[in-house]
Amino acid sequence: MSDPKKLFIKTYGCQMNVYDSERMAESLGGKGYVTTDKPEDADMILLNTCHIREKAAEKIYSELGRLKGFKTANPDLKIGVAGCVAQAEGAEIMKRQPMVDLVVGPQSYHRLPQMEDALARGETALDTDFPEDDKFETLKSRPKAKRGPTAFLTVQEGCDKFCAFCVVPYTRGAEVSRPSDRIIREAQELVEAGVREITLLGQNVNAYHGHDGGLAGLIWELDKVDGLERIRFTTSHPNDMDDALIDAHGTCDKLMPYLHLPVQSGSDKVLKAMNRKHTRDQYFKLIERIRAARPDLLLSGDFIVGFPGETEADFEDTMDLVRTVGYGQAYSFKYSTRPGTPAAERAQVEEDVKLDRLHRLQSLLSEQQYDIQKSMVGRTVKVLFEKHGRETGQMIGKSEYLHAVFADTTDVAIGDLRDVRVVKTERNSLGGEIV
Ligand code: SAH
Ligand code: SF4
Ligand code: F3S
């Protein structure tokens, strides 16, 4: 038998791309590919790309430039672009970089095996359809091979919200939910392969409607899966946090006390211009209800500074919202103009103003994050251990609040769930002792 062909995938962007990369590798597995972490050994290199900000998209072209050398060294090497840049730019990519053999969008990658046939015939392949056939049904069941204790599971895709800054509704298409019975089946397969914690994914995961009870209904179904210990979900939109989901945060033991609930801005004027469809007060009230259900819940968020029309007073409203809410974790970005989105046409905020606001917001957010980490010292958390640390005898895992926790121990295995007393905090992690 000939050696298996080797596939190298580089993943950019959000967790949904991480999930898609796994599924693409599995799908090409049927064509005799095994994954490699060495691009120089690969027969095929796939870049699974992100289009969310200009920098993310441009990075792909510089990466493709770097890959040219591999293609010169091995003319049989196939190079493919997948993900949201593939969807947004399609055939343009091949025009700009003629050495690209394959372009596949996020809704059509279940057709990769047929596309690979075309490549084997010496053709190029392009598929950025939003096909009628169900991608998830066409994909095979998950492999039985043992895997790590945590996994992502996409339950909902696409977005109908059309925030004025965002490309996702265009690159991922309309909101679609997978039926709950298939998700449960996939969760069972993951658990059989060693998974103990599943993070449910969707661009708007709490708009999930593949179960009569919405996302909460799905979570309660997953709660019954033996061997599954922890459930998380991301990313949520404030307007889709229904009562049942809030309630589940207080009553479902497997649902972890962590919630990523982006607000983007603290100014009503900017929220309106962004088409977020809620006010800052509605967000505050929502947070109050969530915290009433689960007081120790750790909140995370996303923020955009320098959205068109944002004044210093608007920005101060965002700072004020952050001070009022208190985030344990957050991501913040300078507004990036995305062609084809409504906000791209509006008068833009100056670059140096954006940068100054970003620095001020980030220093406030990292101060909050650090304060919350300090408040964990002395407490006992439950850690799911995921990997060995850099130093021998050190293990690293995540607490229920998604803090990275390291412990010096030789008596813990990957996949163990253990009580850990937090004894110190570093910038981005906690140090603890097994109880
Ligand atoms: N569905 C999620 C967000 C997906 S994109 C939600 O609604 O919250 C992830 C984050 O990227 C967004 O929350 C936003 O903060 C940021 N983002 C999206 N478009 C952007 C743009 N044009 N410029 C800067 N940041 C952007
Ligand atoms: Fe983008 Fe808004 Fe949809 Fe989130 S809700 S993916 S920010 S359009
Ligand atoms: Fe990026 Fe697409 Fe995710 S644009 S953030 S990879 S949905």
From TrEMBL:
EC assignment: 2.8.4.3
Keyword Iron-sulfur: yes
The record's free-text note on cofactor binding: Binds 2 [4Fe-4S] clusters. One cluster is coordinated with 3 cysteines and an exchangeable S-adenosyl-L-methionine.
SMART domains on file: Elp3
One Pfam entry name: UPF0004
Cofactor requirements of the protein: [4Fe-4S] cluster
Chain sites annotated for binding [4Fe-4S] cluster 2: 159, 163, 166
Gene3D superfamilies from the UniProt entry: Methylthiotransferase, N-terminal domain, tm_1862 like domain
Top class in the EC scheme: transferase
Keyword Kinase: no
PANTHER family xref list: CDK5 REGULATORY SUBUNIT-ASSOCIATED PROTEIN 1, MITOCHONDRIAL TRNA METHYLTHIOTRANSFERASE CDK5RAP1
Role noted for this protein: Catalyzes the methylthiolation of N6-(dimethylallyl)adenosine (i(6)A), leading to the formation of 2-methylthio-N6-(dimethylallyl)adenosine (ms(2)i(6)A) at position 37 in tRNAs that read codons beginning with uridine.
Quaternary organization: Monomer.
Name the UniProt record assigns to this protein: tRNA-2-methylthio-N(6)-dimethylallyladenosine synthase
